[in-house]
Design goal:
The chain contains 3 helices and 2 strands; from the N terminus they run H-E-H-E-H. By secondary structure, the chain is mainly α. The longest helix has 19 residues. It is flat.
């Protein structure tokens, strides 16, 4: 997605579920993009190409977040 569409998607997800654990994955690794994404409510940002360990870490955190908030 283009950056503007990523922002729209993030806004829609957070609008539906303010406690959603959203990890954005993008080929745009500019610090401004990462900062804006996190400021706008994403729980994490992974720039492509990503490392498998980083993705696993975010998935583990999201599972913990889900169990804490939805159990």
């Amino acid at each position: 997605l283009a950056p503007a569409h990523q922002d729209d998607a993030l806004h829609d997800i957070i609008g539906c579920d303010p406690d959603a654990y959203v990890i954005m994955v993008s080929g745009n690794s500019h610090i401004d993009t990462m900062t804006a994404t996190l400021t706008n409510g994403a729980s994490g940002f992974i720039a492509k190409p990503f490392q498998r360990d980083r993705m696993r870490s975010y998935i583990a955190e999201s599972i913990t977040h889900h169990h804490k908030n939805y159990a």
